[in-house]
Amino acid sequence: MKKQFYSLPELTYAYGDLAPHISAEQLMIHHQKHHQAYVTAANAILEKFDQARQEDKILDYKSELKSLSFNLGGHMLHSLFWKNLMPEKQGGGKVQGEIASKINEDFGGFARFKNEFTAVAASLEGSGWGALVYHPALNRLMCFQIEKHNFLFTPGLEVLLVVDVFEHAYYLDYKQDRGKFIEAFWNIVNWAEVNKRFNKK
Asked: Whole-prediction pTM value?
């Protein structure tokens, strides 16, 4: 029996609860197919590492670790993404708490932050993520791009909010219109969860 290091997290809402911004079919495929694929691949690589140690074999670690980074990054970012979301009818999209004050302080207002974050996410080359992060050394919020699933930014930054801009996140609902998907995303952001992360910094 294969060891399960990671598992697919359950959602706190039904697949249809984020409609019309994300359809039930789009969310189900994204969660059950794409996220599950990263979990399965990450588990397989870790099991391969254990097996190699038992058999005293040396693997192509450059290749294996690159693959592990991609798949584990996909799992971790998707797990965060699902928590970022909540149905609009339950308060999704309404910024609240200390994070609202910090956004006003660092960006000059929510509208400016929204425009900047949207531009960062929309302009990412290829596939990846738009992210709002907190930089503890500077005590400031910043918008970042994450290419594919690789955290290509300063270590120590706290990731507070992400939006998946791989086409698999929106292709059924919005075709290739990434901008339209990002605009819809703002209606279902779980700001209570973002605020909770911010307060744990």
From this structure: 0.93
